[in-house]
Design brief:
The protein has about 80 residues and is of the alpha+beta class. It is built from three helices and five strands, in the order E-H-E-H-E-H-E-E. It has one domain: Arc Repressor Mutant, subunit A (Orthogonal Bundle). It has a three-stranded antiparallel beta sheet with strand order 2-5-4. It has a two-stranded parallel ribbon with strand order 1-3. The model has no long low-confidence stretch (mean pLDDT about 90).
Length: about 80
């Protein structure tokens, strides 16, 4: 396999993999796991989790995803992973 050379951009990931879904919710941890899998599939270098979390919070706000923060994790409301076709 070729060496990864492209950094997996957070905004590109969000548009490619996430969709508004009423009644759905996802933890930031679940989104990070999907982000890492997406990067592996595309042979991208993923950002570190801490940077991804802060950047994703900014991107999610710009996309209009609601976020709740509790002691355990951040929860994104009304968002789900697009199913691969």
């Amino acid at each position: 396999m070729d060496k990864p050379e492209i950094v997996g951009r957070v905004g590109v990931y969000a548009v490619a993999r996430l969709v508004r879904t009423p009644g759905a919710s996802m933890t930031a941890e679940a989104i990070i796991l999907d982000y890492h899998a997406w990067c592996r599939r595309l042979n991208y270098i993923p950002f570190r989790d801490g940077f991804f979390r802060s950047e994703f919070a900014r991107v999610a706000a710009a996309l209009g995803f609601d976020r709740e923060v509790n002691d355990a994790d951040e929860i994104y409301i009304g968002v789900a992973i697009k199913r691969d076709v």
